[in-house]
TrEMBL record:
It is a multi-pass membrane protein. This is Spermidine export protein MdtI. The chain crosses the membrane at residues 6-27, 39-57, 63-85, 92-109. Keywords: Cell inner membrane, Cell membrane, Membrane, Transmembrane, Transmembrane helix. The keyword tRNA processing does not apply. It is found in: Cell inner membrane; Cell membrane. The gene is mdtI. Forms a complex with MdtJ. InterPro entries: EmrE-like, Small_drug/metabolite_transptr, Small_multidrug_res. Belongs to the drug/metabolite transporter (DMT) superfamily. Small multidrug resistance (SMR) (TC 2.A.7.1) family. It comes from Dyella jejuensis. PANTHER family: SMR FAMILY PROTON-DEPENDENT DRUG EFFLUX TRANSPORTER SUGE (PTHR30561), SPERMIDINE EXPORT PROTEIN MDTI (PTHR30561:SF6). It comes from the Bacteria.
Amino acid sequence: MLPDFAPVHLLYLGLAIALEIAANVLMKCSAGFRRKAPAVLAIICALAAFTALSHAIEGIQLSVAYGIWGGVGLIATAIFGIAMFGERLRPSGWLGLGLILGGVVLLKFS
């Protein structure tokens, strides 16, 4: 199980994940940074995500917080890509997402 930590750290981790997802979606919307508004918002979200993550790791182990942040962010970004942009994954991509999910679950119990 995760060691004891203040709930605020979990909130910061959730915020960091949400901001990372927003940054990734906005990068896609920026069309390679040719569209300025989504590009600037993507940069702001990315910086805010790292700021929130830095607050989360004050009370959560770095390896656990970063693993969850990266894993959940990647899985959610893939889902947004499928839902919003019609992207498709090959079976190996689905397997990779499943392995990432398994890794995040194992981190919870480390």
